[in-house]
Design goal:
Arc Repressor Mutant, subunit A, two-stranded antiparallel ribbon, 9% strand, elongated, Winged helix-turn-helix transcriptional regulator, DNA-binding transcription factor activity, WH-like_DNA-bd_sf, WH_DNA-bd_sf, HTH_MarR-typ
Length: 158
Amino acid sequence: MPTPDPPRPGFVLPLLLLAGFRTLIDDLHAELARQGHPELRPLHGFVLQAVGTDGTTASELGNRLGVSKQAAGKTVDRLVALGYLERADDPRDARRKLVRLTPYGLDGLRRSAVVFDELRQRWTEALGADRVAAIEDDLRRVTPANWFRLDIPGWFTG
């Protein structure tokens, strides 16, 4: 006789977490498009975060993202063409090129932070402040301390 399915099968939890993540990211990008950043894609946010305010080289960017230098360079090319990044000489080493955020790239990051705060507030209105805080606290309890890793694009793509 087969055993009945559990009322809350284990595979549902990661799917719900992914659906919550996807909902937040989709809502973020819809709002960014309305605010003048229609070209930004989810991967671009990881790249802009990895470049950071000090800039980086394509090799280091690839390491941070967990992708090859060539893959990082291709993404940088796209973001340069869209006006989010620029290439510049490294003042410390004339042989190296830095990848840096442009003012438009910084604007995209700043707007993202504001929109994420608004999305969190929307969840708070739907679920209650205590429940959202409890979700965050519980996720902190079951995830590693270094939960923010910029190699997530590489993790998703293998």
